[in-house]
Design a protein that fits this description.
Length: about 475
């Protein structure tokens, strides 16, 4: 038996696949094809290792893997054997030739990971993220909480408790949001929060009032819940609060920085919106996606801080201040919605990634979060300054109105007959990613044509060079 077995286990160190992978594949294949039959005792790990001139750990790991897959079993006092009763599967297993596995591995390595092109909106500069500090904190929480951080934790469907505490504290002191930590729900980004709110609060006959132009992801979430949209116009001050009551069940808005125009809603309009939702008996979702980035003045307190009706749901995200792929967003829910939201959250998954949530809690509590925001603010302010200066030097035919903060600059065309979609397409052909303002509108007549430029993820040199390309393309449309 040994002879046959050794003969089938040809390992090749030049292959990209690890020896452990090669050994387990060969053994699996030999069992599946019946070359090694059920009940056969395998050589000890020491014997096989010395026969194949490989490390014993490699053999142990390959045996372990096949035991986990159910091909092998351990017999007390005898050793490892091919599980009884497997029979020959009679399946034609295509031999995994060396060339095949090398090819498949190459295919995997060829996988492209795209990076944002200038001027993709709402992209943080991920190079500013303090990854080594984050990893130290990650190791620290893993040591501190051990297995507790690794098991299912369905009692934490609304998030890692320490993170909920730390966020409540952050929102109280920085955004004027008065809430207990039990009101905080952690979600997989704010997009998941919007989707779940749609499922929780809306039904087929519901009406959602939302900004036009506005965030298309929110519209998609509400439409998916079956709601109809009522589009609220946006002007140079931000969203115009509705006058007529009519039926509205939910209002979605971005008061701190209207997305995508960039306007900050003045207090009078904020109070008008709050009075409106009270009259209409509607919920309000305040999407506060990037208010940390105000460069010349401190951020305005949230709309939530003015609300006395308990009908405002505050929504935030770590995608802009930290990393989009972290997928951590959060909601501040009124008491009456917490239990319902938790049940719904449990339908999607027991909880979000606990290791990242615990690391983020540590990052907040140890202050790394705040110094990271300060660092980003400083860098982004400089990039904004470069962006505006170069745009002016190049005499772009665009008006930039809201230049005190944010991650994007929306330029409105001086000539209101410009086809911003055509311009955006031409810019894309020139290798840039500049969205048309009308991409965010359901009815382009609601607002002037324009272009949305994200500037935060790009170095001053990239901003300068890419704006020169923008100027060349725009010249063709003059
Ligand atoms: C206004 C607004 N809200 C919400 C989001 C979603 O963010 P995330 O799901 O990454 O938290 C975005 C993304 O760009 C956005 O622009």
């Amino acid at each position: 038996m040994k002879r046959t077995l050794w003969a089938t286990l040809a390992l090749d160190r030049r292959q990209p696949a690890t020896l452990q992978d090669q050994l387990s594949s060969s053994l699996r294949e030999a069992i599946q094809t019946g070359s090694i039959s059920s009940g056969t005792m395998l050589p000890s790990t020491r014997e096989l290792a010395s026969e194949l001139a490989i490390s014993r750990n490699t053999v142990i790991a390959a045996y372990d893997r096949l035991m986990g897959e159910g091909y092998l079993e351990s017999k007390p006092r005898s050793g490892i054997m091919v599980r009884e009763g497997l029979g020959s599967f009679g399946i034609a297993v295509a031999p995994t030739s060396k060339t095949d596995s090398r090819l498949s591995l190459k295919r995997r390595l060829k996988f492209e990971v795209p990076l944002p092109k200038p001027f993709h909106p709402c992209q943080p500069d991920v190079n500013l993220f303090p990854m080594s500090m984050w990893n130290r904190m990650r190791n620290r929480v893993l040591r501190r909480y051990g297995a507790g951080l690794l098991h299912y934790q369905s009692s934490f469907a609304l998030g890692w408790p320490e993170l909920r505490h730390a966020l409540a504290e952050y929102l109280r002191s920085n955004r004027g949001v008065q809430c207990g930590w039990q009101n905080i729900a952690i979600t997989s980004g704010s997009q998941q929060a919007l989707f779940l709110l749609g499922q929780l609060l809306l039904k087929r006959s519901s009406v959602v009032a939302c900004e036009n132009p506005g965030y298309v992801g929110a519209r998609a979430a509400f439409l998916h819940a079956g709601a109809k949209l009522r589009l609220l116009p946006v002007d140079e001050l931000g969203v115009v609060p509705p006058q007529k009551t009519g039926q509205v069940d939910l209002v979605y808005a971005t008061p701190s920085r209207q997305f995508p125009t960039g306007a900050t809603l003045p207090v009078a309009r904020r109070t008008a919106l709050l009075e409106y939702i009270q009259r209409a008996g509607a919920w309000m979702v305040e999407d506060d996606y990037d208010s940390e980035f105000r460069y010349t003045r401190p951020p305005l307190p949230s709309l939530h801080s003015l609300d006395r009706s308990g009908r405002v749901i505050y929504l935030g995200t770590m995608s802009k201040v930290l990393l989009p792929t972290l997928r951590i967003g959060y909601l501040v829910l009124p008491d009456s919605l917490v239990a319902g939201f938790e049940s719904l959250r449990l339908v999607t998954e027991d909880h979000g990634p606990m290791i990242d949530q615990a690391t983020l809690a540590e990052f907040l509590l140890q202050g790394g979060f705040y110094s990271h925001i300060r660092r980003c603010r400083k860098n982004y302010a400089k990039r904004l300054e470069v962006f505006l200066r170069v745009a002016e030097q190049l005499r772009l035919p665009l008006e930039f109105r809201f230049t005190d903060g944010g991650m994007n600059q929306t330029g409105l065309f001086h000539d209101s007959s410009t086809d911003d979609v055509a311009v955006s397409k031409a810019l894309s052909q020139a290798g840039l990613d500049v969205r048309a303002l009308s991409h965010y509108s359901s009815n382009t007549k609601q607002y002037r044509p324009g272009l949305v430029f994200g500037f935060t993820a790009f170095s001053p040199a990239t901003i300068r060079n890419s704006l020169k390309v923008v100027a060349q393309v725009l010249e063709k449309f003059a």
